[in-house]
Design a protein that fits this description.
By secondary structure, the protein is an alpha/beta fold. The chain is built from 9 helices and 13 strands.
């Protein structure tokens, strides 16, 4: 029957699962405390193309009216905003002069503002619905606070790369990720590389900079922390070795080949 579901917390996966269920549910379903990030928006767009009704009716409320027989779908996937944001932060951290193409700009507004306010230098050119970002070396970087949050906040998936960038900022940066447990484990690896980081609690850390990072033997605990440690290794003096790289492969296809293409000294080896 028609129903209303109130989620216990904001969750991309929980929201997606309910939206998928609702797509084949021939009665109206209202989902409250729903996540609104790009993955959910794209899924709703696909369901509409297949004959469903799916819309945001109120803030963080999704209404879906599905059907028993969905129409065939032909859909072009979004370019990954998290990957684009990771490469943007990497380019700033390495003081590179790099162009990043096919960026879904509308999902990264707060990231752009935070970086601009911090002293990062980059130019954005819009091309249809996408953008091209040209990164220039920064002169002075000051990041007072990084707080990841649900969309449209800074994604927790970009918090790790932002934390690496903060090691090159002047003064202290408060890093706060209230959403997930264990998301700050990569900071322990940064301390091995010479970073000056203190943990306030499982969700907050204080990063002091700028510090010169040095190469180290590193372990990757999760997909985003792994990508951040690739970034840190490219910023560091000396050689770094990363293990458990299958985590990185989950979100960054052939990352070493693309970085080689812009001059990075990086290669994949078998242990």
């Amino acid at each position: 029957r028609a129903a209303e579901v109130v989620l216990k917390e904001f969750s991309v996966t929980a929201t997606e699962n309910l939206v998928l269920f609702a797509g084949l549910h021939p009665f109206p379903l209202r989902i409250k405390i729903a996540d609104q990030d790009y993955q959910v928006q794209e899924l709703m767009e696909a369901l509409v193309s297949m004959g469903c009704s799916a819309k945001f009716s109120d803030p963080h409320t999704i209404e879906v009216h599905g059907r028993k027989d969905l129409k065939p779908l032909r859909h072009k996937l979004l370019y990954d905003p998290i990957e684009a944001g990771t490469f943007l932060l990497l380019a700033i951290g390495t003081k590179g002069h790099i162009a990043i193409q096919n960026v879904e700009l509308k999902f990264l507004d707060l990231l752009f503002k935070t970086l601009k306010d911090s002293g990062a230098r980059f130019e954005i050119r819009k091309r249809n619905n996408l953008g091209e970002i040209t990164v220039l070396p920064f002169k002075k970087l000051v990041i007072e606070k990084i707080q990841s949050f649900i969309y449209p906040g800074i994604s927790s998936d970009l918090q790790s790369a932002f934390g690496v960038l903060a090691t090159q900022a002047e003064g202290s940066t408060l890093l706060h990720d209230p959403l997930y447990e264990g998301r700050l484990k990569y900071l322990e690896e940064l301390n091995k590389m010479g970073a000056d980081i203190y943990f306030s609690d499982p969700h907050r850390a204080l990063i002091n900079g700028p510090t010169k990072l040095k190469g180290a033997e590193l372990g990757t605990a999760d997909i985003r922390g792994g990508a951040a440690l690739v970034m840190a290794s490219l910023m560091a003096h000396g050689r770094s070795t990363l293990s458990n790289i299958y985590q990185i492969d989950r979100g960054y296809e052939k990352i070493e080949e693309r970085l080689q293409g812009i001059g990075a000294d990086i290669k994949r080896v078998s242990s």
